[in-house]
Amino acid sequence: MLKVLKFGGSSMADETQYAKVKAIVDADPDRKVVVVSAAGKRFKDDHKITDLLYLCHAHKKYGVSCDEIWKMICDRYISVRDALGLSTDIESEFAVLREKIDSGISEDELVSRGEYFSARLMADYLGFEFVDAAVWLKFNLDGSVNEDESYQTLKKIVGGHKVVIPGFYGVMPDGAIKTFTRGGSDITGALAAAALDADVYENWTDVSGFLMADPRIVDNPETIKQITYSELRELSYIGAQVLHEQTIFPVREKKIALNIRNTNQPDHPGTMIRESFAEQEAEDNRFITGIAGKKNFSIINISKSGMSSELGIVRKIIKIVEKYGVNVEYMPNGIDTVSMVVDSVKASKCLYQMLGEIQEEFNPEKIHVTENIGIVAAVGRKMASKAGVSGKIFARLGEHGINIRMITQGPDEMNIIVGVDNKDYDNTIRVLYDSFVK
Ligand code: ADP
Ligand code: ASP
Ligand code: MG
After folding, report:
1. pTM for this model (two decimals)
2. DSSP letter string over 354-381?
3. Which atom of ligand 2 is nearest to the CA of 186?
4. HSE (CB half, 13 Å, CA atoms) of 41?
5. Is the separation of the CB atoms in 232 and 210 below 8 Å?
6. Quick one: how far is CA 107 from the chain centroid?
7. Which of 247, 352, 398, 410 has its C-alpha lying 20 to 30 A from 109's C-alpha?
């Protein structure tokens, strides 16, 4: 049995957190591969090391001294090392890096060092081998990951050893360091799990799993115990962010279960994510697995009689929208109406020009734009088998005086999406949570 673990920034913030990580890893001999993030915040107004490294690069770029920031970065790692009584000589590495910074280092290489130093110290502390991501995680020229080569290389290096790997970065074909987008250590963990055909990928963070709703809107939302990859995709796409959006692809392909866990509450089972769950595994009868959403969308309605019988009209409209670089998030259509939900900010720069083009090309009877729309999705694999779910949802929202501006449902009936006025957004989430989860 092999478990690959990833510890996020808050789990790597100081020596107390390192001790928790060690206790978790030591508690299970199957926990053989550990991926780590750079040190995160120790308290609310603290700085993440990655943010400081970006800042350091920006200072140098504009010819401003970064001495103070550089000292903060070095001190954080040295104090962890000394507090844990470790012997890793990071001072010499800091000296080499500092020279590189002064002579011009790429932004990606500099910010990747947060993860690098975390992994060096954690390997020393756990007594595991350090395996640099730069030797196995290979990007293609287009920025995608060369999975075949990366997987083969990591497999060969790790063998049966216990190792610590820095997250967040890899190398381009020419050897230059390249990072993922922010939060990308989650992806490194998933790639390592896939490369080594792990039995489970444990993602250790600072919450006890994926919550059923945004904790800033709903007080103490429950943890989702089990969720499928498809449900997670839906929730993450619309706004719930615990894992980097690209995390699930490598593990899903290899049918590896993903378990989100809390470093500060290691006994909590967290959230288990798999392709499917047997009916009898379900611990409750709820048809909603989670609720998520985002504010600030616009709904563009285009009406024209006989529209549905005009061949290719939807495709042609989308083509125009695409030309302006605007993504259509949802498209709930009627017989003679096409509606498009678009991000208000992205659309605002070109909205009237784009609508003008649509008007000229199709001559619709009416084009109407509703702004300030919040989109809320109720996601649940069990919705498909239950009759009358949407009716119940609309009835509850109506009872609370919430005006529904748009409704759409995915073809697999796994989600119901409603558009409401921005001002009703929080209340919509609360009403759905109180009615169908509590
Ligand atoms: P890490 O540093 O471990 O990668 P992140 O900060 O990237 O951790 O992700 C964990 C955070 O995600 C939580 O602290 C929480 O504030 C936030 N979060 C947002 N939506 C949710 C949700 N639905 N469930 C749980 N956490 C959420
Ligand atoms: N340290 C990087 C960041 O802050 C990557 C990560 O933590 O996943 O974005
Ligand atoms: Mg993260």
Report:
1. 0.87
2. HHHHHHHHH--SEEEEEEEEEEEEEE-G
3. 8
4. 7
5. yes
6. 22
7. 247
